[in-house]
Amino acid sequence: MHVSPYLFFNGDCREAFEFYAELFGAKIEAIFPHAGSPSADQVSADFQDKIMHACMTIGDTQLMASDCPPEQFEKPQGMKVSLAIADPEEAERVFAGLSVRGDVQMPLQETFWAYRFGMVTDRFGAPWMINCGKPVMEGSD
Asked: From what superkingdom does this record's organism come (predicted)?
């Protein structure tokens, strides 16, 4: 079994995925607009260039997404996409990138469980947690 987050964007999925690919050093595996697909006749002319499905590989996991029709779009709530990053400097770099024109809920900082931990909603509306964990201490369960 494998769990993959699936994000819905308000018309800027392509821009978000290109940004994430560069920031995370990730590979976009697929990015399909509605135009030319079997669903092309099911969306309006101004939605043809919007993304029907996108997938990228980040480390050994996948992040998937699409553009949501404007009348159906809802801001994500009750969840965040968690990125586990081993190096504190890399965690700081990624957090800084996601924070540009974003909304920081918790600044990146040291906690009792992490060298660095922070929460941010990026400029595309995607909510993230950045975690650079400390080794688990024996007897702490």
From this structure: Bacteria
